[in-house]
């Protein structure tokens, strides 16, 4: 990543999550979901939030 991408990523993390730790919690949840996704295991909003986070990271890392 170049310096501009790093700045954009840091700004996105701060603006969207407040702290890197909150982002890390979403990423931990995403990993957990990969192991345990079954009907009723997670709320629909939780799944949508994780998808939004992963798409945001993909956009900023590419």
Explain what this protein looks like in three dimensions.
- With 62 residues, this protein is mainly alpha-helical.
- The protein is built from three helices and no strands.
- Helix 2 crosses helix 3.
- The longest helix is centred in the C-terminal third of the chain and has 18 residues.
Short description:
The chain is 81% helix and 0% strand.
Rg of Cα set: 13 Å
Mean pLDDT: 87
Q: Which term fits the overall shape?
A: elongated
**Which range best describes the helical content: under 10%, 10-25%, 25-40%, 40-55%, 55-70% or over 70%?**
over 70%
How much β-strand is present in the residues? under 5%
Structural class: mainly alpha
Straight-line N-to-C gap: 9 Å
Order of helices and strands: HHH
Major sheet characteristics: none
Number of helices: 3
Counting DSSP E segments of at least 2 residues, the number of strands comes to 0
Which segments are poorly predicted (pLDDT under 50) over 5 or more consecutive residues? none
Looking at this protein, list some descriptive labels.
single chain, 62 residues, mainly alpha, 81% helix, elongated
């Amino acid at each position: 990543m170049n310096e501009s991408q790093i700045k954009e990523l840091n700004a996105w993390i701060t603006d969207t999550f407040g702290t890197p730790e909150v982002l890390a919690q979403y990423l931990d949840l995403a990993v957990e979901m990969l192991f345990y996704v079954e009907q009723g295991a997670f709320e629909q909003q939780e799944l949508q939030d994780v998808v939004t986070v992963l798409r945001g990271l993909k956009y900023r890392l590419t």
